[in-house]
């Protein structure tokens, strides 16, 4: 009896030691994933100064949802403060605590199109992978617009990956998910209600709907994110139906798209939606789309 207890103790002790060693190793691997730095070759950008380009930059920030996270005045906010992470969207203005006063165009570009912050580490949560295919003129317009938004003084705490988040970063959570080291796109096709411009805009949709908008089993997003459908079928809707669905989330069937998973794009204008619709119309339907 005594012997059995002793052996049970040894086995449990051994298992606990193994567990601690495994946790230690995970913490170590996760931490090095979090601390990893990336060196990106950014494009050399010439920022526009004319009011039409700056207005276009403002419009792009609306389509691409920047204010959803950075706030209507771009002063940033604490987006999540949970046991694994504290995620803070940066103050993008030139006020106290903002990056605007000292960021160069390259610093913005590195963060927005490549997912890498000025200190070389990856951005968390910000969907830079969806912005990688923006062309130089468009990213230039966005930066030029941001540089002239009114300064807001707001000091925010830093984004922080806590011990639990570091453990998760060894496996299920990939802190480098948004990083793309490839050179970003150079040209921007001429704006027009055609499939070519639609293909350009669709990089935003491809973030969740996958390459060629074929749908994804596991799109990036909050827990419980459902698979995203292929978009060829929506290319067969009327333009009117498609515009309503993308702007408001109401499908022609009357079944609303769930807003926690499929964003609305109320800022997209008629030309942009017609372009996207034209592009979707060129996609091949597969048997599962009907
Ligand atoms: C889903 C939320 C979200 C969206 C949408 C988003 N951002 Fe961010 N952004 C963040 C977060 C969070 C950070 C800070 C990331 C970190 O600290 O790891 C950040 C960081 C940045 C930075 C880097 C600042 C720094 O501190 O180094 C810039 C620049 C930036 N965002 C610009 C933009 C622009 C421009 C857009 C739209 C094209 C945009 N963001 C869209 C959440 C978002
Ligand atoms: C953050 C991820 C995400 C992004 C970005 C996104 N979608 Fe979606 N989309 C989804 C998900 C998830 C669904 C399924 C939602 C549901 O079933 O309620 C969906 C559904 C749809 C549908 C319904 C298709 C059908 O056949 O019923 C359309 C149309 C659509 N998206 C268009 C777009 C367009 C156009 C863009 C880019 C401008 C876009 N989506 C960007 C996640 C996304």
Protein described:
40% of the residues lie in helices and 4% in strands. It is built from 10 helices and 3 strands. It has a 3-stranded antiparallel β-sheet. Strand 1 and strand 2 form a beta hairpin. Helix 2 (51-63) packs across helix 5. The protein binds heme C (2 copies). The site of one heme C has 26 residues, from helix 3, strand 2 and helix 4.
Shape: globular
Bound molecules: heme C
Report the end-to-end length measured between terminal Cα atoms: 68 Å
Sequence stretches where pLDDT stays below 50 over 5 or more residues: none
**CATH architecture label of the largest domain:** Orthogonal Bundle
- Structural category is mainly alpha
Strand coverage percent: under 5%
DSSP, total strands: 3
For the largest beta-sheet, the strand count, sense and barrel status come to: 3 strands, antiparallel
User: Taking strands numbered 1, 2, ... along the chain, how are they ordered across the largest sheet?
Assistant: 1-2-3
In N-to-C order, the SSE pattern is HHHEEHHEHHHHH
Mean pLDDT: 94
List the total number of helices.
Answer: 10
What's the structural domain tally? 2
Helix coverage percent: 40-55%
- Rg (C-alpha, Å): 23 Å
Q: Could you name the CATH topology of the largest domain?
A: Cytochrome Bc1 Complex, Chain D, domain 2
- The CATH class of the largest domain: Mainly Alpha
How are the SSEs placed, and which strands pair?
Layout: H1 2-35, H2 51-63, H3 66-70, E1 77-81, E2 85-89, H4 105-114, H5 136-147, E3 160-161, H6 163-168, H7 195-201, H8 203-209, H9 239-248, H10 270-281
Antiparallel strand pairs: 1-2, 2-3
Helix pairs in contact: 2-5, 7-10, 9-10
């Amino acid at each position: 009896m005594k012997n059995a207890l002793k052996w049970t103790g040894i086995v449990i002790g051994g298992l606990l030691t193994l567990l601690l060693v495994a946790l230690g190793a995970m913490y170590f691997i996760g931490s090095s994933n979090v601390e990893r730095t990336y060196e990106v070759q950014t494009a050399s950008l010439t920022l526009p100064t004319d009011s039409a380009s700056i207005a276009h930059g403002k419009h792009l920030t609306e389509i691409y949802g920047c204010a959803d996270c950075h706030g209507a005045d771009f002063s940033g906010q604490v987006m999540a403060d949970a046991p694994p992470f504290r995620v803070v969207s940066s103050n993008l203005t030139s006020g106290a605590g903002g990056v605007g006063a000292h960021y160069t165009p390259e610093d913005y570009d590195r963060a927005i199109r490549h997912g890498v912050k000025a200190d070389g580490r990856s951005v968390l949560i910000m969907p830079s992978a969806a912005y990688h295919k923006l062309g130089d003129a468009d990213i230039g317009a966005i930066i030029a617009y941001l540089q002239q938004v009114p300064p807001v003084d707001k000091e925010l705490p830093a984004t922080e990956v806590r011990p639990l988040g570091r453990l998760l970063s060894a496996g299920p959570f990939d802190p480098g998910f948004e990083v793309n080291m490839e050179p970003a796109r150079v040209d921007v096709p001429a704006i027009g209600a055609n499939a070519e411009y639609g293909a350009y805009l669709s990089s935003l949709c491809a973030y969740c709907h996958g390459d060629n908008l074929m749908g994804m089993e596991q799109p990036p997003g909050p827990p419980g994110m459902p698979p995203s459908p292929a978009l060829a079928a929506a290319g067969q809707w009327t333009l009117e139906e498609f515009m309503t669905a993308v702007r408001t989330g109401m499908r022609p069937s009357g079944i609303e798209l769930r807003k926690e998973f499929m964003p609305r794009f109320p800022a997209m204008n008629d030309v942009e939606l017609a372009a996207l619709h034209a592009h979707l119309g060129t996609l091949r339907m597969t048997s599962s789309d009907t």
